Amino acid sequence: MEVVIASSPVDVGIGCWDLRSGSELLRYRSCSSAPHGLLSIAGRFLASSQLRDSPSSASCPIFFWSWDKPQVEVRSFPAEPIGSLVSNSEGTYIMGGGPSGIIYQWEVASGKLLTRWHAHYRSVTCLTLSKDESLLISGSEDGSVRVWSLMMMFDDMAKASAGVLYRYSFLEHALCVTDVVTGHGLCNSIIISTSEDQTCKIWSLSEGLLLRSIMFPSIIDAIVMDPGEHVFYVGGRDGKIYIAALNAECNRNSIHGMFIIGALYDHSKAITCLAFSTDGVTLVSGTEDGIVRVWDTKTKHVTRVLKHAKGPINNVLIVRQPLLRNPISVNRKHLNLSLPPPLSKYVDSTDAEVKTNAIVLLQSPCHDPEEIRFCSSYVMERQIKELQKQNTSGAAEMEMERLMLECKRKTQLVQQWKKL
C-alpha cells in the first residue's frame, strides 16, 4: 500500500492518506516542518525538522513519530536549526543542512553525530543522494550546487591531501537553489537543479558539465523526475506544473518555452512540493492553499483532492507501506517499530574508542517490514567467537585488533588515574 504524507510550515500536524482510496489514516500532531524537512526513515518511522517558533527562538528540534501514534515520541535538539533532511534507503543515517552552511550526518541506531563539514557559504536549502547512495548533492542560498563523496567525509587522509572536499561545485545559478533531483544512471546519471532565477539546469554527474539550461515562465520551487527519465515535472509559483523533456529537441514554437512540452492546470496558488508514485503515472502535488492533488499524468487530470488544513503545504511524500493497511491498529512489538534515541548535538571526540552498539544488515530481496534491519552488538560478538573457534587467520586478526583497542583504553584509564 502507498500512502501520501503531507506537512505544513504552520503547526497543523502531518496528514496521512491512502493514495488509492483517499481516506485519511492518521493525523500526526505538533509539526511545523521546514521545506524539504519531512522524511520516512526506511519506512520505519517519520522524521521532520522544525521551524523556529519566533525569529529570536533558538530551539529548533527534529521530531520522530511512530506510524501508529499521533504524538511526537523522540525530540532531538541539534547545535543549530536544521532545514533540509535526507536519509539513505536502509535508514542507517540521516543528514541535515543548517543555516550556517554546515551539513551534519548522524547514525540512526545510536543517534551519534558522525561528522559535520562546512559545505556552503550560506544556508543549505536542499539535499539528495545519488541512486547508489555514495554521493550527496546539496543546494544552497548562495546559488551553488555541490557534489560530495560520503566515503571521503570519513577518510582523514584523503581530506588532508585534497584541495577541496567536494567533487563538483556548480555555480551557474544566479539566485537561491530551491530543489535538486538525480537520475538512475549511477555514475553516468544526471542532476537537475531549480532556482529562484526561473531556470532548471541539467548537469552530468560523470563529467561535471552543464548539459542544458531551461528557462521557465515562473520561479520554480519543486521538481520531480519521471521514473523512466523521459520527462521531469516542476512546480511554479504561478500555480502550474510544467512538463519538460530531457531528450527532446529545442521547440521554439512552444507557448511555455524551449524544451517545455506541456503543463498541468488546476491550481490557484503556488506549487511548493511534488512526489511521483512508483507506478510511473501518479503524480502528487502540494500547494500554498493547503490542498494535495493527485494527478494522472497520462490524462493530465486530477483524480483526487486531499484537504490537509488551512495552512499551506511545504512537503509531500509517497511512502510504500505494503502490509500496514491501518497504521492505527499496528502491533508495535510485532513489527519492531521501536524508535532510536535522540540525535546528538556534538561530535563525540572519543568515537574511535566507543564500542558500536548496532550493526546494519543487508536488505533482503523480499520487502517484508517484519524483518529486523538492525541488531544489537552481541550478534556480532557471537559471530566473532564462532570464527575464533575455527582458528582462521581472519579471526586472529580481528582478535588482535580487539586486544589493541582494549590496550589503548586501559592505557588511557591508567593515565587518568595517575593525574588524579
Any overview of this molecule?
With 420 residues, the chain is mostly beta strands. It folds into 2 domains: 2-335, YVTN repeat-like/Quinoprotein amine dehydrogenase (Methylamine Dehydrogenase, Chain H, 7 Propeller); 358-419, no CATH class. The chain is 12% helix and 39% strand. The protein contains 4 helices and 30 strands. It has helices at residues 156-161, 332-335, 377-389, 393-419, and strands at residues 2-7, 14-18, 24-28, 33-41, 45-50, 62-65, 74-76, 85-87, 93-97, 102-107, 113-118, 124-129, 135-140, 145-149, 166-170, 177-182, 190-195, 199-204, 210-215, 220-225, 231-236, 240-245, 260-265, 271-276, 282-287, 291-296, 301-307, 315-320, 358-360, 374-376. The strands form 8 sheets. Strands 3-2-1-28 form a 4-stranded antiparallel β-sheet, with no helix packed on it. Strands 4-5-6-7 form a 4-stranded antiparallel β-sheet, with no helix packed on it. The longest helix has 27 residues, at 393-419. The chain starts with a strand and ends with a helix.
